[in-house]
Design brief:
The structure is a single chain. With 293 residues, the protein is an alpha+beta fold. It contains 11 helices and 10 strands. The chain folds into 2 domains: 147 residues, no CATH class; 77 residues, rbstp2171. The strands form 4 sheets. A 4-stranded antiparallel sheet has the order 5-6-7-8. A hairpin with a 6-residue loop joins strand 9 and strand 10. The chain starts with 12 loop residues before the first strand and ends in an 8-residue tail after the last helix.
Length: 293
């Protein structure tokens, strides 16, 4: 076996999130700029993504971040939905690059043509937003009553908890998320459970969460070049990045297959080689990877 360059994970880098720090236990007046240590995706992380295909995207994304963030799962689960989205974009930038080529099928039934366009990570990152507080307050008048609520922003642990339910019953998942995040609710001073709140009040809470966590949902406004129809769609960073990493893992495993078949090295030995080192051996074999079956 050739000398190994070690697991090709790349050195962690300091990545900033706009506005304050993620630790809500620190008083706001003492909050420095939020910074986390993040390393690029390593070959073994790509294999993990390939092997975890049966997990829902939210849980896979948290697990991937936990592998790459300093602080592991505790840090990944504590990030608000928007901060987690920002970290996934930064992870994509570190691991694959700034340029994001996309293909989307036009949703107009009479068109359905593929739309090819490119995004930049810098354009997807919200430039600045206020640091998330431990709790937020909301007062809403609805159905003749004054509602006073205290809530926090959903975090990675909350999203993972409701993700399986969201695949089959989105309204019920939204209600469960509300129940996890609303700490106190009163109507004219009388305590209320989150599920008993009127639909209008629940909508106000959801809107307040979105306003205070603007990176949580990335909305794209496009125009189909074939039919000219204006289209609004959501860019799901977790699902997009996981698909890209699955494709890279497939290619890498084909490389492992080619090298293992010829040199009889183990998968672990091949994966711990640097990319340049591995490509040199593939060049000697006359191909980059064996074709997919």
């Amino acid at each position: 076996m050739p000398a190994s360059a070690g697991l090709e994970a790349g050195a962690p880098v300091r990545v900033a999130i706009p506005g304050g720090i993620w630790d809500r236990g620190v008083p706001e007046c003492d909050r420095p700029h939020r910074e986390l240590m993040l390393r690029p995706v390593a070959p073994e992380d790509e294999v993990f993504v390939l092997d975890s295909h049966d997990m829902v995207p939210s849980t896979r994304a948290t697990a991937l971040l936990a592998r790459c963030l300093e602080g592991g799962r505790e840090t990944a689960e504590a990030l608000t939905a928007g901060d987690r989205e920002a970290m996934l974009l930064q992870l994509r930038r570190l691991s694959i690059g700034e340029h994001v080529p996309c293909v989307l099928q036009c949703p107009v039934e009479t068109c359905s043509e593929p739309m090819e366009f490119a995004l930049q990570i810098a354009d997807l990152l919200v430039p600045a937003y206020a640091a998330p507080l431990g709790q937020h307050e909301l007062i809403a008048d609805e159905e003749g009553a004054r509602y006073e609520l205290t809530f926090r922003l959903p975090n990675g642990a909350d999203l993972d908890a409701v993700a399986p339910l969201a695949r089959t019953n989105a309204p019920l998942a939204a209600l469960e998320l509300l129940d996890r995040c609303v700490a106190n609710a009163r109507a004219n001073g009388v305590p209320q459970s989150p599920e008993s709140l009127p639909a209008g009040v629940r909508a106000r809470v959801a809107a307040a969460m979105a306003e205070r966590d603007p990176q949580a949902e990335i909305e794209l406004e496009l125009v189909c070049p074939a039919c000219g129809q204006a289209i609004t769609t959501i860019f799901d960073t977790a699902s997009f990045l996981l698909r890209e990493l699955e494709q890279r893992a497939d290619e890498r495993l084909r490389e492992v297959h080619a090298l293992a078949s010829h040199y009889h090295w183990s998968e672990r030995e091949i994966l711990t080689m640097s990319t340049r080192h591995r490509k040199r051996y593939l060049d000697l074999l006359g191909h980059r990877a064996v074709p997919a079956a």
